[in-house]
Amino acid sequence: MPKRIRRVRTFARTATKTQEKYLIENAKHLHDNPEELLPDITDESGRKYITQLHKRIEKAHKYRDETQKLEKIANKKGIEAAVAGTLLLAISEKAPYLGVVKLPTGDVTYAQRGKADKEKLIGIQHYTDPILRLMMVKELSFKKNLYFYSWDTGYICTGKTPQPPQDFISFISKELNLIIHEKVVHCKHLNPQKIREESIQKEYYLRIFWKSADWYFGVCEDCAKHTKNSMYTISKYMLAPALSDDFDISVIAEVIKHYETDTSETTAITEYFSGKITDYEIIQKNIRSRKKTVADAEERILILNGKSYGDNIEGFIEALDATSYEIEALTFILSQ
Fold first, then answer.
1. In Å, what is the CA distance from 205 to each residue of 75, 82, 283?
2. Coil, helix or strand at residue 99
3. Looking at CB atoms within 10 Å, which of 120, 219, 241, 300 has the fewest?
4. What's the pLDDT tens digit per position in 1-51?
5. Measured between alpha carbons, how far is residue 236 from residues 80, 129, 131, 232 in Å?
6. Is the dihedral of CA 128, 132, 136, 142 positive or negative?
7. Under a CB-based contact definition with an 8 Å cutoff, are residues 53 and 133 in contact?
8. Quick one: which H or E segment has residue 32?
9. Cβ count near 148 (within 10 Å)
10. Neighbouring residues of 175: CB distance < 8 A, sequence distance ≥ 6
11. Angle subtended by helix axes 79-92 and 17-32, to nearest 10
């Protein structure tokens, strides 16, 4: 399922001196260093698109000191219009009024110049922010099926192939406060090999499998109280054509030992992907659901200390270590 491009809500406000100064300084820096808008390229399948992007940026940048030319370009559409609008900000050194966009990460301000798309303006004017700069290339990513990764010290396009670099994974692991073992990012309470194998462990845990990149993530129930929504943390630093199809989300939890429905299908995945619930909440929802399945089961299920004996009366009574009198009574009661 292709990732839907969300509409952003905007309104205007008077710029604070700090906000105005930040945007003007960024615009001035781009006046001299437009190449900083461009990601590095690690795969030839994306080179022609980034080269085209560079040419469109240059259409505006070559007139960086000519106000009338920039105003004309800024009244068009596309990335060159957003570049022109930003360069006008560097020339005027004024941004008394700012547009404000409400994003999941918080309110973001930008200076509207001309008719440029607000998302491209935000991406360009906040090009040093690893999350916001992706807004500049979001449309390109979805139209041409390109992958982009952005973090504190890097920004790359891997073309049509998902190839997250090790530096990106290391950055994400730090953001989640997790550790890396080979190609598994996990909390200290989980065995990385068992995460790979999707195996039951002592702790209930959330498992995320990044299929195309062949990376695994595992967070136990206790650590999940501190990670918020790991999928959101990963996705906000990247652009991918079909994000939800590329990640397999599951809660691994054997709520009753040896009970066959304990590894039933994970629920609440849509809520989780949309960011409505946290890692801890999706784990809890699935545990409650599986316990309810056991409670609602019509067949006889004998459970002792969290272990299921099914309808094995002899095995259940043996585990109780009952006296001979208790064994006789329990055998009669349970058989009824």
1. 52, 44, 7
2. strand
3. 300
4. 444 444 455 544 566 788 889 999 999 999 999 999 999 999 999 999 999
5. 25, 12, 6, 6
6. positive
7. no
8. helix 17-32
9. 23
10. 233
11. 110
At 271, list the tokens.
């809520």
From 6-20, 201-215, 224-238, 241-255, the region with the lowest mean pLDDT: 6-20
Tokens coding 137: 């290339």
3-class state of residue 155 by DSSP: strand
Q: Distance (Å, rounded) from C-alpha 5 to C-alpha 10?
A: 16
Extract the tokens encoding 298: 């019509």
Integer CA distances (angstroms), 59 to 5, 73, 111, 140, 143, in order: 27, 9, 20, 18, 22
Q: SS3 of 164, please?
A: coil
Q: What is the mean pLDDT of residues 49-68?
A: 96
Return the closest-CA partner of residue 251 out of 194, 189, 198: 198
SS3 36: helix
Cα distance from N-terminal residue to C-terminal residue, the chain: 52
Pairing between β-strand 205-210 and β-strand 215-220 as defined by DSSP bridges: antiparallel
Higher-pLDDT residue of 330 and 228 is 228
Around Cβ 7, how many Cβ atoms within 10 Å? 7
Tell me 263's DSSP state: G
For residues 249 and 267, the answer to whether their CB atoms sit within 8 Å is no
| Structure tokens given for 170 | 């290391």
Stated pTM of the model: 0.82
